Fold these 2 entries.
Entry 1:
Amino acid sequence: MTFLRWAGTLTALVVLIFTLSSCDITNSSDSDSEPELDLVTIGSVTSGDYTISLESDSMLETGVNQLYWKIEQDGNLISPGSITITPLMDMGDMMHSTPFQQPEVAPEDDRYFSNMAVFIMASGSMGSWSIGFDITLPNQEVLIGEIPVEVNSSWRLTSVRDDEDNIYFITWMHPRQPVTGNNTLAFMVHTRESMMSFPPVVDAELEIYPYMDMGGGSGHSTEFTAPDAQEAGYYEGSINYSMSGTWTTSVSLTAGDVTLPEVMFEYSVQAQ
Amino acid sequence: MKFFISNLLILIWATSAFAQASTFRVLDRSTGDPIIQAHIKSGEETVIATTNTEGYFSINRDDHPVIILTAVGYRAREFVLRPGMEALYMNPDIYRNETGLLVLANREGENNVQAYQQQHHAQNMDQFLDKIDGLSTNKRGAFAWEPVIRGQSDQRMNLMIDGMQVFKACVDKMDPITSYVETSNLSELHIDKSGSDVASSGGGNSSINLITRRAEPESFSMNVSTGYRLPDNYRTLSIAGNTSDRMGRHAVRFSGSYKKADDFISGDGTQINNSQYEKLNLNVSYRHRLPSNHTLEANYITDKAYDVGYPALLMDATKALADIGQLRFNFAPTEKSWRVETIQIYANAIRHTMDDYSRDVENRSVMGGMHMPMFGETFTAGARTNGQATISRHSFEWFLDGYFSQAYGDMEMNSLDPDIEDMFIYNLQDVTTWQGNVGLKHRFMISDDLLLKAEQNVALKNLDTGSERFASFFEGLYNRELDTRPALLISASGNLLWMPFDDWSFSGSTVYSERMGNHMERFGHYIYNYTDGYFYDGNPWLKTEQSFNADLNTTWETDSHSISLSLFHKQYFNYIDGILAENTGNTGLEFKRYANVGDATITGGEFRSLNRLGHLLSIENRVSYLYARNQTLDEPLPLIPPLKGFSTLHLHHGESRLMGELEWAAAQHRIAQTASIEDVTGSFAVLNLTWERDWLNGSLTSILQANNLLDHHYHTHTSIGNIPEAGRSVMVSLSYAF
């Protein structure tokens, strides 16, 4: 009888625990809560009743950046109808743009627009960057202006020229912060048609070689998969870091029949 | 006929003395198992009783105050039956069961640790193991030699303490767990060379189980030993004591030892730098006997080693810490058809810290110009239980055990060049192993002189890493997604013992075993192998390695002479070893990955003879040989000892004992040149002398020992980096017991 009582109690406890663990105890209304984008503000301007803010994952730097556009009216977010932008570097005696895409509704939060921009040089004594915008609101009101931005230098961008002085911009896209273990490796490759046109190079071949110089005459490479062309100048492979420390990865670009001189990325891999 | 007569005698005896009969149980001292069909003799010839399937027999103590017990596979033993006695223990016969060597340290048996090798407490465990037939050690210096059974080391053998799984923390194998038990704290040493003991130790691997001494229900006793050796200034002090209350319900045993040595000097007078060590070992054991005669035991070992030099390696151990604890509940014998005998739970943590701060790293050929501090840690917890069952009149033993282990290892690389960023690597990150075993052991007494033993074991084992990032490294290395699944591992053995004559036995065993790659073979990363100079990466997709072992043994033994010969052959399938990784332009570094490389074999044998020439003189000879081959590479396996042996002359006179020992080995020309960077090793022979004398009626013992008397300069084939052995040394030891 005692055994049956214990068995009954135990069964009840198991059922209770199972029931509790099976229940979705989260508030269903949470699913409607605002997705949180962890962004920093790059710059903002006011136009009439509206505040146009440019935000990003981190401060802007040479190479690939993801930009987020936010329109507010009296503190409330407004989803714009469309946004057209023009990044521009003013170097005094000349101006040029940079590889970029036009903003579209951000998949993370449909009240934002987002786009990719590859800044090909840093802000500084050579010149300054600004991004012009042309925003059409749902009420057909149009906001036009520009936001000055500061672009820092980084290791994630390099360029190389062929014999005919065509320049190719090779951008290290992923991993943004390399960590030990296997990483998706992605590059973007653009060229320059004019000072305002930087089309992607879609049919290039990239040969890479990662290496760690450990000093004292020791060094080693690691497993990797050479990046393949995907779309719109995007090339994807993988790289497998065996340890943290300073690594280099050389990239040899073949565009058409021309193999360009090798370029080198040097960066730090973190242990994780 | 014998069976009929014995039963008739029992019947007559039982009829006449039923009212005064006492019941006893005959048990195996090493395992506690009942011994069936043991003969109870009154005098040399007359069998008066036989134990039943539970090991019990009844006898009139008044008629037979002294009996002799004999059983197949056990040494005959004489007992004086006293009131209150219930269990009678017999010791397995080491000469007649060579594949399952058992060395006992209890003073009452002849086959104790001291008698087996004429060793004393001042000797390290690794030195002791190195001299046992069929065993050798891979050496990296003067400390923590890695035991090897018949050429199988590390992952191909089980090293246990009291049946517990304890995993080394050092990825460079600097800390074999044998270093955590002192010889003075060793009760029994179970060596299963063939792996036939699959039910209890699991897996069918060769195994060494170090059984520690436990608290005994005895009056207060204590032993103090100390020793000093030149020229390495080795000094040691050990204390051990045991006490219990008057009723023997509570018993405590404690022991502690401290030892420290400076660099040793080889036979050519060279001081071997970085061969020093310092070590402290403490052990506490408590035993409580309940009114129901169940007993509860608690045991804790802590071992701390500091400043341990490894001249063969790139670095030294600054700290090696072990904490090993267990609780054990022993059930009193019952008559139930299904009974539990022991339940044991345990946990242990091993931590190992090493660095190369005392080394000249600037001029080092491997990974020069940087310091490489390393840390390793394992934590293991498990439970074991065993018992007996009877189904349809068939009795068998059952074993259940399971454990969980977690391993971690890392290495920093700090360049001497300040412009080079510090590097860091996970050798093992959150690598977990869990395993559950079910084992069954059956004994069939086919006839009076034929015993068949059959064992089976089924294990479920899994290895994984809890770090997705660490797992991604292997996914990138092998370009496939990691999906670890438990593996079902089956092992089985059959052992036949035939004793056509009282002094001559034949035995044969076969073992089938399946082995999953261990945590280093599956998830080790960037681990330097000193035997071949390659850095190794694990392979989580290794197939199960299978092996088949066949053993034959014959032993002839009389009271004065014993000759034993064992031959074995082991065939590996899907042998796990390192294969060269593609060289992607590395500088100064070469890499290998673990893989199933094909087949391999190890064949060999051991010969042993012991001749007692009167009461004063005895001679012992031991010879062992291994022939191992990687069949895929068509070359010898690495680190296989050559033909080697020991010849020992014992002289006993009064209170003195003199022992002369010749240790020798032939040259080893069979070397692995593809899979390893080992070289040919020359032959050697060294002479050791020991003089031992008892004083004060045996309470005080003095030992004078001179090793390598002729100061020969040599190294063994299994000395990694060809580090030479110690030259001539002289040691004085004193041991006082009260």
Entry 2:
Amino acid sequence: MPLMSRRSFLKTSGLCTAGAVAATYLPDQFLLWAGEKGLAKTEKITTYCEICFWKCGAIATVVGGRVVKLEGNPLSATAKGKLCGRGNGGIGLLYDPDRLKHPLIRTGKRGEGQFRKASWDEALTQIADKLKKIKEEHGPESLALFTHGSPTEHFMPLLQGFGSNNFAMPSFAQCRGPRVVGYELTYGDDIGSPERLDMANSKVVVLIGSHLGENMHNSQVQEFTDAIGNGAKIIVVDPRFSVAAGKAHHWLPIKPASDMALILAWINIIIREGWYDRDYVAKYTNGFDKLAAAVQQYTPEWAEKETDIPAAQIMATAREMGLHRPAVCIHPGRHVTWDGKDVQRSRAIAILGAILGTWGREGGAYLATKGSFPAVPPPSFPASNRPTLKKGGFPLGGAEGVTNAIREATSIGEPYPIKAWMVTGTNLLAAMPGQKETIEAISKLDLLVVVDLIPSDISLYADVVLPECTYLERHDGLIIGKGRALSASIRQPAVAPMYDSKPAWWIAKELSKKLGLEDYFPWENYEDRLNELCLTYNIDYDELKQKGVISFPDTAKPFITADNQPVFKTKSGKIELYSKELEELGFEPIPTYEKNEEPPQGFYRLLYGRSAVHTFSRTVNNPALNELYKENELWLSSVQARKLGLTDGQYVALQNQEGITSNRVRLKVTERIREDCVYLVHGFGQLSKGLSKAFRRGADDQQMISSYPVDPICGGTGMRCTFVKLVKGA
Amino acid sequence: MPKYAMVIDQRRCIGCMACIVACKAENNVPPDQFRTRVLEKTEGQFPNLRTELRSELCNHCDNPPCVYNCPTRASYKRRIDGLVLLDKKRCVGCKACVAACPYDARYIDHNKGFADKCTFCDHRIKEGKEPACVATCIGKSRIFGDLNDPKSPVRLALKGHHAELPLKSAGTEPRVYYIRRFGTE
């Protein structure tokens, strides 16, 4: 048994009695003695993080059955041996006293938050009985799954085995969907997650509305700071002087929602001045002449009027890119659902990268590894009689499904009724705009099951709440990394589940038994399945457990060379500057500029973003992270604050054009934002009383976004088109 | 004998606060108390702005006022490596050191009653590891090492860069250096 060190014990005893008194300070001699007697042992358990979706490899130090420290796994490409603040704060989630502890069955009205404790058997039986009845009355397709992250792997077989293919992930229509579609249309391939950017070697890094750094995507931020350290020119386009803008050589404080004008002007200048990569364009792209003709109208002088950015600065930044191509990293963005024209804007960004010859080039974007593991054939699910609703009416709705399409179908009951939702790994009320519509759709349901770790707002509406245990207490699917090398990462429990919480795989499997679907879960426990997968993948399971990550070096050829030519899976086999596919669907084959509406007198455009220590709404109650950012602030320009007679630190409320008023929020009066917009960190203003630290702290941006344009190509919701005014005396 | 020091390359700090969370977990720092922090200061007027992100912690001064002002000799400067440390058994929680420190680096542990502060993760140094904040620093902004070793990361970082000391005029001779601008090399 490994000896524990004296200070580890001190730490453990301190944690055990957190909040208690000076009695935790024990004489050193006693601790030494305790250590020698082996009263507690120290273990290192590898896993990957789930405080966000970056899936960083982590190593948990466990002393005497308590997780005391989390560190980044040096073998992990997403962590590179380091964890961000949130990853370090994973212990806060594990030991958050507000966690869901038992299955709950609703006793009050939906939304009131009145529940009673139930046993797992009772809760699952109730769900299964309801589902069977719904299947009988309305058909199996009347069950829908809203999901995000690791529970997806466990609940999808349940949904599909049940006979429905109605699932959707907010990560598509409320996040990066338009980018996936835009890049697939242009390059025949998405740029991946993590994005395959060779940022550390870039000479120019362009961030358009991306506040990397506040948006803590671990390895990408590490590469961003490497780029800064290497002296790369940083160009940041943001109405707000973000942390990244503070590092920039060129900060372009653009008029919000006019980004397309800037990008098209850049494309025009780069073509006009001959700064594009002629050979690359000739060899790998098609439609260049049509593009050149189409963008001629977008001069820098014109763009200045649209964007508020001086023409000279637009020229200078275009020149910077042209001079340093192809080592130019134009970040494709991640949360790109801004104005409902987002596929086209993503296309424009993709085209800008293409004419600079950045795809497959050092300092630009690297090519995906061609290595892969042997495919595991999926089980044969029953065929649906009725078509899936997950794409809505959107021609390129995507594999991940359009949440708002399923929500709408639920509300109106057309083309067929949806009577049950399972919600796993996502707080839908904070994730989707139009909270009223979400609540209305829920009112049409016979059954809403929420699987969550904390009593999030959506759980208040559930008929049955099932407590999932945290990532530090469970197995999950292997993460297959397809970045610079093929890799596999494991998640395994550092400690046993606390309270009466259970892993998602267990919940799905137990439910399958009650529904007669156990054939889709042909293993006793998840470790058996992982073992089996490892056999198929030819990975040593014990080695994987010990290392956490196994990578296969030399499985990637990241850059274009004479004998490593890129493959574009577009119809033409080339980069499509001119998209025939879009033309055939009735959309603009080359991105064009269409002006967005501007806020009326007295209103500001509501922008929202991230804090480096929070993920969505899921960390706001985490004690380790909450103490660093307890409630969000409303950024307001100092000029506007003077005009309105408002001072820094004062509380105000937001009111949108439909008269919806937010919870009170503290003002941050700053020089760091334009006068025509205000800014909030997303995820605050939670209404669930069970979140004792986050309850009604700050304002909820999503509550304000009650009407929004929808991208006709992919169904993405435009969430930066909300105008708010400030109400004093809140 | 080693002379441990830290260099904060402010250009690479992204304000993610990983250092703070890692430090608190590593050292079991009570809720709402901190051994290190990241401050943000913006100067100028829209759109001509400059933001400075600045990590602060105990400077392990060579001329430490906290040590001189400690009535019980609980605070001391360790001869062997110059770390400013605290013998908790001797500390009576009188706050003299908290008041004396010009960097606001100390606090009275509200669970345990004694003074506490950054130790440069003395226990990790012993195991040959970097302090927790340095090990997890996403931007590689925090750099740790031995000033007496010409090949140490701190010496390499200081070479060719203009580094500043916090409140140099206070005469405390801090061992945490700040790089704010690009160097000549």
